[in-house]
Amino acid sequence: MNEESELSVKEKWFKIRELIQTVFNKTPDLSAILYIIGMRELGKPKTKFSKEEKVRLMHIATCRVLSTSGHYNLLGTDEKDWPVWELVSKLPNQDMLEQEMYLRHHIINYFEEEELI
């Protein structure tokens, strides 16, 4: 990736973090951003989630953002009306830093697609 597009990615990532910090008054890390995407995708105005539900929300977000690259496919919803995703294409074999960057790129795409940035 060239330096110019990488700078653009960094700028977009900081823009996302800034947006979330403005709304929630906290600087978000990757997990917090996934949690917020998960809440948005769930579409239910609930403010209190159990620990298990929070993990599920982050899973929903991960599946949703990676679905644009064909890794996941939305099957529908379960009995509680939560999205159910299916792994369609295995994720690339990457180290932790590469995985985080891969996820960040997909999160940026999500925010752009949803016209949030």
In short:
It contains four helices and two strands, in the order αααββα. The chain has helices spanning 3-24, 30-42, 51-66, 96-113, and strands at residues 72-77, 83-87.
Mean pLDDT: 92
Q: Specify the helix fraction band.
A: 55-70%
The tally of strands reads 2
Alpha-carbon distance between the two ends: 22 Å
What's the arrangement of secondary structure elements?
Elements: H1 3-24, H2 30-42, H3 51-66, E1 72-77, E2 83-87, H4 96-113
Characterization of the model:
- This protein is mainly alpha-helical.
- Helices cover 59% and strands 9% of the residues.
- The chain is built from four helices and two strands; from the N terminus they run αααββα.
- The protein has a two-stranded antiparallel ribbon.
- 18% of the residues are buried.
Which features does this protein show?
117 residues, mainly alpha, two-stranded antiparallel ribbon, 4 helices, 2 strands, 59% helix, 9% strand
